[in-house]
Amino acid sequence: LHWSTKLLSPASLIYITFLPNSSWGKEMMELYNHYNRLSKEATEGQEDHGEEWTRLPSYNRTLKYATGGAYLSKIIQSKARLFTRNIRDPGAAFEYVLFFRQDKLKCVCIFQAGHLLEGPPGHVHGGAIATMIDTVTGTHASLLSAPVMTANLNVNYRSPIPLGSTVLIESILDKEDGRKMYISCRVTSTDGSKLHTEATGNFKSGKLFIIKHYMCINCKFYLNNFT
């Protein structure tokens, strides 16, 4: 899979900025600047850069148009939005940016949790943490293979994450077995001294779930071919 920026015009899809905004705290900015200095932004036809980190783009939808510009509102609701990108208020919920490094088979996410993600008083809801883990590991698996679906996700919570804080979510490919990919993930404090959450995921790629790209003008849907 390659992340493609060619799929849709700005008028047809709202591009969610993963660039700094006024809600980003000091730790979020410092980590972003660190990885950004080591990276190149993903561009059309050049989505990984080997020994360099690649900053991944982010949209509020995965796919909206098919071959020839046919609008898919009859198949996918036109008002649908990705769960982690459906709140406009900066800093209110999921603030994150992902970086990928092909040669290390590794993905890193810088995540700042907003006030709308509260579970225990003053801390992030476990479901929000699991959502981010699924987002990062699923993206990672898709970048290494083809579009995938989560088959299994095991999450072990070690210590709570305070609301408003910034954490690192790091995923690593453990092994591949045919169409299955096994990825492990750790959520830590920004300096790595505190382990918040550990997880392992099993992802399965479809034969022709979506051809070649998540987001591409020429993609075709094979909704019945995922087995």
From TrEMBL:
Domain Thioesterase: 122-194
Matches recorded under SUPFAM superfamilies: Thioesterase/thiol ester dehydrase-isomerase
Cellular localisation: Cell projection, Ruffle membrane; Cytoplasm; Mitochondrion inner membrane; Mitochondrion intermembrane space
Protein known as: Acyl-coenzyme A thioesterase THEM4
Assigned protein family: Belongs to the THEM4/THEM5 thioesterase family.
EC number: 3.1.2.2
Keyword Membrane: yes
Membrane protein topology class: Peripheral membrane protein
Listed GO biological process terms: apoptotic process; fatty acid metabolic process
CDD domains on file: PaaI_thioesterase (cd03443)
Molecular functions per Gene Ontology: hydrolase activity
Pfam families: 4HBT
Predominant cellular place of this UniProt entry's protein: membrane
Annotated signal peptide: none
A GO cellular component entry from the record: mitochondrial inner membrane
Entry keywords, A to Z: Apoptosis, Cell membrane, Cell projection, Cytoplasm, Fatty acid metabolism, Hydrolase, Lipid metabolism, Membrane, Mitochondrion, Mitochondrion inner membrane, Transit peptide
Reactions this protein catalyses: hexadecanoyl-CoA + H2O = hexadecanoate + CoA + H(+); (9Z)-octadecenoyl-CoA + H2O = (9Z)-octadecenoate + CoA + H(+); tetradecanoyl-CoA + H2O = tetradecanoate + CoA + H(+); (5Z,8Z,11Z,14Z)-eicosatetraenoyl-CoA + H2O = (5Z,8Z,11Z,14Z)-eicosatetraenoate + CoA + H(+)
Top-level taxon of origin: Eukaryota
